């Protein structure tokens, strides 16, 4: 039988109408999950790549309506890690076996390009075999180029939504979908492994928006796609908006694994926050990356993008142990390799 899912598996595209059916019909969920798992195993085996996440500043000049560290949230207690703090997180992570460090933060003018480059160079000098990923928002192309030259190989910047009108409902007027996309294409052009992504169930999101997201990413061809549910934060304008649904996140994960067979797909902390087995279910539906927290425990509760975020009380070692057990129980294995995207591994021979 030539089902939509078997066609996706053999690298055929679907029409918008077909994606609409997949995104809105319960009846395909089992077939989708099984196909996504099979494709993930074909390309990446049962490996799950670990990335050590260092949330190094929660200052942010932006005011995204969904986000708990938006600048107008006066309740947020702000912090910045020093370069020494960051190096200590890396040292702790290195001993635990991490070979990717993700530096994530709000858009914080204190961290000038010079400071970011100094931090990236210091990490690469001390740990030449480790990859440094940046996730610090929208910047001019020259800044992205400078970080790349300093040794950052990957960059995460979720596009959030490909639809300009929807984008405008989630962000203040000084931000635009157009500039967001410009950043992503600049990053690709420079040679980064690029991560795009979106929240599932963000306020005002429709099925048509999700189809537009798939189409946008088919054009961009990201190496990573970060998706998780929208979860409300009590001190934001979206405090009363409903959270995204588990089923919808899993469905999109499965679809993305089929449309982008070689993409790196994290089972996100937001997914683990919405359901006790959320990350495990994600791994069983195409996801192959987890990003445990390496931030100092003293600041973890301050990097609160949404309410009730998990893993904010645990030491880095505890968090890794917990995840290891969860990953094994779900039927997969931790890989402590750098875990580059397959596209890049093929390029490098
Ligand atoms: N719920 C879920 N995800 C969120 N993010 C920010 N705020 C929330 C929220 N309330 C996501 C955004 C951002 C990433 C770092 O975290 O998609 O790109
Ligand atoms: Fe962090 Fe379980 S994964 S404590």
Describe the structure.
The protein is built from 15 helices and nine strands. It is of the alpha/beta class and 349 residues long. The chain has one domain: TIM Barrel. Strands 2-3-4-5-6-7 form a six-stranded parallel beta sheet. Helix 3 crosses helix 10 (246-259) and helix 6 runs parallel beside helix 8 (177-190). The longest helix is centred in the first third of the chain and has 16 residues, at 29-44. The model has no long low-confidence stretch (mean pLDDT 97). 5'-deoxyadenosine (5AD) binds at residues 66-67, 158, 160, 199, 228, 230-231, 233, 270, 305-306. FE2/S2 (inorganic) cluster binds next to helix 14.
Radius of gyration from CA coordinates: 19 Å
Q: Return the string of H and E elements.
A: HHHEEHEHEHEHHEHEHHHEHHEH
Instruction: State the secondary-structure class.
Output: alpha/beta
Low-confidence stretches: none
Strand order of the largest sheet: 2-3-4-5-6-7
**Total of domains:** 1
Q: What would the principal axes of the Cα set say about the shape?
A: globular
Overall CATH architecture = Alpha-Beta Barrel
Instruction: Quickly count the helices.
Output: 15
CATH 4th-level superfamily: Aldolase class I
Biggest beta sheet summary: 6 strands, parallel
> Strand content of the residues, in percent?
5-15%
Distance between the termini: 37 Å
Number of strands: 9
Helix content: 40-55%
Q: What name does the CATH topology carry?
A: TIM Barrel
